[in-house]
Amino acid sequence: MTAVAGVVYRVVETSTVTEDELTRILNEQTREGWIFDGFQFVTTEASHRPAMAFAVFHRESGSDS
User: Fold this and answer.
1) Does the CA dihedral 44-50-51-52 come out positive or negative?
2) In CATH, 2-63 is 3.30.70
3) pLDDT tens digits for range 4-14
4) DSSP-assigned letters across all residues of 20-56
5) What 3-state class would DSSP assign to 62?
């Protein structure tokens, strides 16, 4: 986690890039109070299907649980 001007960021990495896994990550993190910012996907030249995904979340630094 990284803090910038009162905001804390969290990045969750997964190599299982499926609808179920991405949904699980979103539900788990938002249930803990994190606000979803977006996904970043990593692809390889051999495949257009993502090999990894990074989910980015933030919240106010004073709202740590």
Assistant:
1) positive
2) yes
3) 679 999 999 99
4) HHHHHHHHHHHHTTPEEEEEEEEEETTEEEEEEEEEE
5) helix
* Sequence-separated (6 or more) residues with CB below 8 Å from residue 37: 9, 56, 57, 58
**Residue 21 backbone dihedrals phi, psi, to 5 degrees:** -70, -45
Whole-angstrom CA distances from 53 to 2, 60, 63 are 19, 24, 26
What predicted TM-score, i.e. pTM, was given to this entire model? 0.83
> Starting at the edge strand that comes first in sequence, how are the strands of the sheet with 47-60 ordered?
2-4, 7-14, 47-60, 35-44
